[in-house]
Amino acid sequence: MTTGGHQIEYLPNILNSINCGLIILDRDEKIIFWNHWIEQHSIISAQHALGKYFTEVFFEMSSSRVHEAIRNTLQLGYPSVISNVLNRAPFPLYSPYTLEKTAHAQHRIQQAIHISPILYPDNHRHCLIQITDVSASVMRERALEYQVSERKQTEKELNYFKTTLDMTMDCVFMFDPDTLKFFYVNQGAMAQVGYTYNELLNMRPYDIKPKFNEAAFREMIAPMLSGKQCSTNFETIHQHKNGSQIPVEIFLQYISPPGETPRFVAIVRDITERKKIDNLKSEFISTVSHELRTPLTSIRGSLGLLIGGALGTLPQDVKNLIDIANKNSERLLLLINDILDMEKIESGNMKFNYAVQPLLPLIQQALVINQAYVDQFEIRFELTTELNQVYVNVDADRLIQVLSNLISNAAKFSPAGSCVNLSMAHHANNIRVSVADQGQGIPEEFQHRIFHKFSQADASNTRQKGGTGLGLSISKSIIETMSGGIGFSSKTGAGTTFYFDLPEWDAPVANSNCAIK
Amino acid sequence: MSDSPLLHDLELDLLTELFNIGVSQAATSLSQMVQQEILLCVPRVEFSTPQELAQRLGQQQSVIAISQEIDGPFSAYAMLLFAEHNSLMVVRQMLGNQLSEETLAELQQEALSEIGNIVLNACIGAISQGINDSFDIKLPHIKVATPDHLFDHLFDDFQVPSDQETILSLHIDMRLRDSQITSYLAFLLRGISFNQLKQTLINVLINIDTPENKKLRR
Question: Which of A220, A274, A405, B202 could pair with A471 in a Cys bridge, judged by C-beta atoms 3.0 to 4.6 Å apart?
Answer without folding.
Answer: A405
